[in-house]
Amino acid sequence: MTVALVRSPARRSVVRCAAALCTGALLAGCAGVEGSDPSARRASGAPAPAPSTPGASTERPDPPDPTDPDALQERYQRVVRDVLPSVVQITTEEQLGSGVVYDDQGHIVTNAHVVADAGSFEVGLATGGRPLKAELVAAYEDQDLAVIRLTDPPRALHPAVFGDSAKVRVGQIVLAMGNPLGLSSSVTQGIVSAVGRSVSEGEGRATIGNMVQTSAAINPGNSGGALVDLAGRVIGIPTLAARDPQFGAAPAPGIGFAIPASTVRDLAGQMIRHGEVVDPDRAALGVTVRTVLGDDFQPAGVSVVDVTGDGPADAAGLRPGDLIVRVDEDEITDVVGLAEALAGHSPGDRVAVTVRRGGARERATVTLGEA
After folding, report:
1. 283-370 architecture in CATH?
2. Is the domain 1-279 a CATH 2.40.10.120 member?
3. Which residues form the PDZ domain (predicted)?
């Protein structure tokens, strides 16, 4: 079945969908507005100070497995009590979404499409009270992450504990916490359905590697919230929900994606320390490309328009006019597919790139550079 990817921006009472066809699944970002340039956006003014108590701790141990339904229920309730105070509602003039308290200095991590073009925000804490003012620290659209900071953080902030993405396992029970459709402090449950997914929001938008796929319901307004294991550790930031283009882009239940905690800690830490992402650690071929259509008017590969001098592709012998059709075992039909294939790699990895050149297929080994 063909699936395509979109964001589904959410306002308080209206959900809009803007489809962007690509390979993979039809994905809806669960808050924010579509159409941001894929680049890092830095707030004006000096960078915020580094947190004294970062939300990157992984010290919370695994609890013993429950032996009866009552024990499992009690664990669910304990996790909700422990983690929900760390999940906030973020409101702009246009929309609302979710965020996670990162440290005791008032930094909150969320999705870049939640903050969109706004510069100031109202933040509602799960513990209640009047909305708090916040400002943008930085947004990094390439990986759909952003950090905002409370202008007057209260003493009673509850920073989240972030888990180790490498320890996430398929079948693990997880809870998704956020503010779907403006219903504040909502919790849904499911399992980890898959790990290591590379998913794109569409051509020209974020392509994110190593995502956690989950069956926990992710709806508009959940973006930027918390995907939590039963030890109370945030293992991901819910970002995209699937929609099925064969049924009028209706929701595809049980298919959602979260940015892994390791990516969140790395990029959020850079944004807090430097006011921007200075080391994205994203793999690149060193080429400019475009999608080429076949005789049936369907995507048939990615044409190399330009090759960066002395870059990875240049060193491997790729040249303008080559048609990239495969990276390792992944068939490449369009630009989004190429981005997804590269998102699963790191700079320095060696990949086999198959191209069509002059009617023949050739294969080159490329040592990936950094974007």
Report:
1. Roll (2.30)
2. yes
3. 274-335
The whole-angstrom separation of Cα 189 and Cα 197 is 20
Tokens of 43: 């707030």
Active site residues: 113, 144, 223
- Residue holding tokens 């930094």? 107
5 three-state secondary structure:
strand
Q: What is the DSSP letter of 216?
A: S
Put residue 264 in one of left, alpha, beta given phi > 0 → left and psi -120 to 50 → alpha.
alpha
Residue 157: what are its φ and ψ, rounded to 5°?
Answer: -65, 150
Cβ 52 vs Cβ 104: under 8 Å = yes
Quote the radius of gyration of the chain (alpha carbons, Å). Answer: 21
- With a cut of 50, say whether residue 1 has pLDDT above it: no
Alpha-carbon span 23 to 299, nearest angstrom: 10
Q: What pTM, to 2 d.p., does this model score?
A: 0.74
For 51-104, the DSSP string reads PSS-TT---PPPPPPPSSHHHHHHHHHHHHHHHGGGEEEEE-SS-EEEEEE-ST
- Bridge-based pairing state of the strands 226-229 and 234-244: antiparallel
Give the start-to-end residue ranges of the domains of the chain: 1-279, 283-370
The per-residue pLDDT of the chain, averaged, comes to: 82
Q: Which residue has the higher pLDDT, 166 or 63?
A: 166
